[in-house]
Structures are given as structure tokens and as C-alpha cells.
Amino acid sequence: MLQVGMKKAVPEFLRAISPKGLAATLGLLFSLTWAGCALGPDYRKPSMELPASWRVAQETEARSGPIPDEGLASWWSVFQDPLLSSLIQGAMEGNLDLLAAETRIRQARASRRASLGALGPQVEASASFRHVRTPVEVPSGPAGEKKLKGIETDQYETGFDASWELDIFGGLRRALEAADADLEAQLEARRDVLVSLAAEVAREYMELRALQERIRVARKNLEVQEHTAEITRKRFEAGFASALDVSNARAQVATTKGQIPVLLALERQTIHRLSLLLGKEPGALVDLLSKPAGLPKLPDLPPLGIPADLLRRRPDIRRAEAQLAAANARIGVAVAELFPKLRLVGGLSFQATDLASWLEWTRRIWSIGPAVSWRIFETGKIRAEIERREALRDEALLAYQQSVLEALKEVEDALSAFLREEEHRKALEEAVKANERSVELALKLYIEGQTDFLNVLQAQRSLYSSEDELIQSLKNSSIQLISLYKALGGGWKEE
After folding, report:
1. Is the model's pLDDT at 44 over the cut of 60?
2. Which DSSP state fits 370?
3. Which conformational region is residue 360 in: left (phi greater than 0), alpha (psi within -120 to 50 degrees), or beta?
4. 10 Å Cβ neighbour count for 437?
């Protein structure tokens, strides 16, 4: 019935149009909306001069060949640690920061639907009922005198109002373009969270395994030092050692023993941080992760690709570019305000004083026609807004360029740190071997009476220190490799 009513409500000049002519008219209106000029600058991808290769790679033997996207997407698999992979997968399912990023994507999608809806007709329906008393003068008496009498009536009204802004100058289309870019920026923001999250979980995992190794080494050295203290005590009782030697031995045992609780506290705190990254309460992973395990085997350095790959892989750079596109589109929205807006407006309603005749066709009231609005006396304000939007676009461009430079720096830093840590680790491995030999010789010579006890203490301290440093160096190498994968944009793939 509503469709019939609409057909009868249109003015005579539209009713005279044939179905084919009506389709052509509607097609013309759509053409004005979708094919009209879109004011403001069209977006162009920014260009930057990037180096052809990595500087650190040129100075070393690091591989610079292309790195496959699949390898970057799940880079943690190179450590060949199923528990690490399981933790990262759990974080990608339960991390609260990641879930918050997904809610922002939903917000951006809703905003885009609102911008898209603004391009079509807007229809508002309404219905009302009122009981009205109206004063009316009526004759009273033979002299023709009049008096006021209240007449009470019921009034029923229903209908709808419609309007359609023809986007001739492209302001609405630029707003939709900006909404598309905003949505893309939020998608990239979620990917950036994925990149950071995978790297953070892996770093905390390496920290945990290194702490457990340091606890193991501390306990091993404690056993050796306690054995040495016992030997010293017996030599003192036999008259071959001084009380000072016994005191020094006991002091070293107490010092090493005191370091273990500190390491245990750090171990528990690291487990708590991992639990938080997975969106769990602090003690949720204690049973799973308290069992000591060594650091995963350090994999080889991956191929690095070329610097230009970062523009394609790094979500933070992609997000900055999307924000630049959104800022550029909003200039067009502001420019369109300089020009008039044309809308088609119309309405159809029914009014009656009784419910039975409420929707009778003879009681219809309709209107249709064009409406123009133009902020002709606000051009100064509009031009100021255009300048502000242009400044925001320029700021977004600088932010994009800064994000590219930061990405280049992070790769070079991580690569340099990894390669230098490799040199450090090799030196520490030699130091551990030499200190192990020194401890054996010093203890043997002390028992034979050919050296004093201070040499034994110094050898044991040096061994413990070098073993502890070696574990931390192995951890640092793993963390620098993780930082390199993060800097290359690894940890996500196209959904």
C-alpha cells in the first residue's frame, strides 16, 4: 500500500514520465552523485629515497637475499621450541591489547557504514496521536450573543520525511574515502599489535629460560664452593690452612647462596608477565613454565631482503600511510563546504480525527522538491578549516617519513647488535673453558700446598662470572634476533 501511495503522491510532471523515463531520471541523479567532481587533492603514495641494501650487511657476511613472507609470518618457528610457539599462539588468542585493537576495527567499520549511508536517501518515519481542545465562538440567546465553547477532537497523524543530498562536489565521497583509510589504519594497528606481541612473548620466554639456566649454574657453583669450603675446613683442622681461608670460603658460599633467591624471584615475575601477555591471571602459567629448560638453540641469521621491503611489511608504516590518505581525503571534505549543497526533499503523511479514516488516501498530505543550502557568508571560516586540514595532512606526511626512518634504524640496530653479540659470545665460551681449567689447577695446587687459597677463590669467582655472562650473552643473541624479526615486520599475515 505504501508503494501505491508513493506512486500517487508524486507531482504531475513526474507521473507523466514513462517507466523508462523515470529510470533515466533516477540514473541521472545517481550519476550526479557518483560521477560528480570530487574536490580536493587526489591521494598519491608518498615517495622516499631508500638505500639499496643494509649498511651493516655490506660490512659483514649477513645474507641480503629476499626473505619469504611465510617465514616472516611465523618467524618464532626457527627456534624449534613447541612451547614457545604455543605461548605465542595463546597470546594471539587471549591478549587484551589485541582484543582492544579488534574493537577499534569494529568502530572504524561502523563509521565507514555511516559514511556510506550518507550517500543515499535518508528517510524518517513518524506517527503521533493527540487529543486537542479548540475554543470556538457559538451563538447564545436571541440577541445573537456569542460565547466560547471548547470542542475536543482526536488527531491521528503518520507519515515519513525523506531527503537525499546529491554529492555533486564530492564532499560525501571524500568522507567515505577518509573512512576507508581510517579502517585500513585500524587493521594495520591490529597487525602492529601482533608484531609487538609475538616479539614480547618471545623475549620474555628467552628471559625466563636464561634465568633458569643462571639458577642452575649458580646451584652448580654453590655445590663446588661448598665442597671447597669443606676441604678448607678439614685442612684448617689438620693445621694446613688458616682461619682466614675458612672464613673466605664460607663468605663465598654465602654470597652465591644469596644470589639464588633473587634469581628465583625474577623467574616468578617473568612467568607472571608471560601470563599477562596471554590475558591470564599471574599464576596461570606457573606450573607449566616452572620446570627448568635450557635456552632454545640459536638459529642462523635470516636473509634480510632490501630496505624497500619494509614499506610493504611493516604495519606501523602501512598504518602511517593510511592515516596520511585519510588526512588527504578530509581536505576534500573541507573544500566541498565552499560550494552549495543540493538536496531532494519530500514527505508523505496522513491526518485524521478518527482512527477508522486515518489512512484513507483522500487524507494524504505530500510535498516534494529541491532544496539548496550554501554557507556563502562563512567562506573565511571554511578556508581556515581547509588550511588546518592541509596542515594535518603535512603532519601525517612527516609522521609517515619518520616511521620509515625509525624502521630503517631498528633493522640496522638489531642487526649490528646481533653480530656484535655473536663475537662477545664466542669470547665468553673461550673464557669459560679457560676458567674451568683454572679452577681445577688452583684447587689441585692448593691441596698440594703450592698456592694460597685466594687463587682458588679467584678462579671459582671467575668461572661463575663467565658462565653467568655466557648464559646472558646467549639470551641477548636470541633477543637481538627477535628484535630483528620484529624490525623486519614479522609476525602477521594477510587475513
Report:
1. yes
2. E
3. beta
4. 12
Return all residues near 181 (Cβ < 8 A) that are at least 6 apart.
Answer: 322, 323, 325, 326, 329
Print the domain residue range for 404. 34-119+169-339+380-487
Cell of 470: 655466557
pLDDT for the residue numbered 113: 93
CA 142 to chain centre: 88
Q: pLDDT band for position 9 (50/70/90)?
A: very low
Task: State the Cα–Cα distance between residues 198 and 76, nearest whole angstrom.
Answer: 8
Look at residues 114, 280, 212 and name the one whose alpha carbon lies nearest to residue 471. 212
Is the pLDDT at 2 greater than 60? The verdict is no
Q: Is the pTM of this model over 0.70?
A: yes
HSE-up (13 A, CA, CB side) for residue 15: 10
The 10s digit of each residue's pLDDT in 337-362 is 999 999 999 988 888 877 777 778 87
pLDDT band for position 8 (cuts 50, 70, 90): very low
Q: Identify the band that residue 5 occupies on the pLDDT scale cut at 50, 70 and 90.
A: very low
From 319, 350, 373, the end of a domain falls on 373
**CATH assignment of the domain containing 133:** 2.20.200.10
CA distance 444 to 423: 32
Task: Report whether 351 contacts 156 (CB < 8 A).
Answer: yes
Q: What's the chain's average pLDDT?
A: 87
Residue type, 353: T
Residue with cell string 620466554: 205
Q: What is the CA angle 170-27-375, rounded to 5?
A: 30
My answer on whether 61 and 201 are in the same domain is yes
Alpha helices (H) along 299-378: 309-313, 315-336
Query: The sheet that has 122-140: what strands, in order across it?
Result: 122-140, 145-166, 341-352, 364-373
Sign of the torsion formed by the C-alpha atoms of 297, 298, 303 and 306? positive
- Residues 6 or more apart in contact with residue 130 via CB below 8 angstroms: 154, 155, 157
318 is a domain residue: yes
pLDDT at 495: 72
The residue among 355, 373, 391 that closes a domain is 373
